[in-house]
Specification:
The structure is a single chain. The protein is 81% helix and 0% strand. It is built from three helices and no strands. The N and C termini lie far apart (30 Å). It has one domain. It is mostly helical and 70 residues long.
Length: 70
């Protein structure tokens, strides 16, 4: 496997971050938490998903798809 260039790293992290924020926002919005807690959760889950997308690449998205759609 060839090393990733800067653009591909940015795309992987960005897409993972956006997906994580989307999921966290949807999950935390249903609970009665403060705006700051929801924002912090979105950033935290976004960073975790961004890191996982960068580290595991397509395997992250494939496993997520298999888990998400039962």
């Amino acid at each position: 496997m060839e090393p990733l260039d800067r653009l591909e790293k940015g795309i992987r992290v960005g897409c993972g971050f956006l997906f994580g924020c989307f999921v966290a926002f949807g999950a935390l919005l249903t609970s009665l938490l403060s705006v700051h807690t929801v924002a912090a959760g979105c950033v935290l889950v976004g960073l975790l998903c961004g890191w996982a997308a960068l580290k595991f690449g397509d395997a992250f998205w494939d496993n997520l798809r298999r888990w998400w759609i039962w």
